[in-house]
Design a protein that fits this description.
- The protein is mainly α.
- The protein has one domain (13-77).
- The protein has 3 helices and no strands.
- It has helices at 13-21, 26-57, 62-77.
- The longest helix is centred in the middle third of the chain and has 32 residues, at 26-57.
- The model has no long low-confidence stretch (mean pLDDT 93).
């Protein structure tokens, strides 16, 4: 992990009191949750772009794809 910076989160006082009663490293927990959310959102964006590209690309005959796969396998065996 690179250099750390501060990010503030405001929670109600009642929640803060409950957080103190639970044995959790809240900083580490929030870092993991944020990282997971970023990965999910990036995957959604990649899927959206891929769908957009597929829409522009048009259909490809199955026979052509099979031929490409076979050629690639033959090259990798050499």
């Amino acid at each position: 992990m690179g250099r750390l910076v501060n990010v503030s989160v405001k929670v109600p006082k009642e929640i803060r009191e409950l957080m103190r009663k639970v044995d959790v490293n809240w900083s580490e927990y929030l870092r993991e949750v944020i990282e997971t959310k970023i990965r999910v959102e990036m995957a959604k964006e990649a899927a959206r772009r891929l769908d957009e590209i597929r829409g522009r690309a048009g259909k490809m005959p199955t026979e052509e794809l099979v031929r490409w796969i076979r050629e690639d396998r033959e090259r990798s065996l050499k």
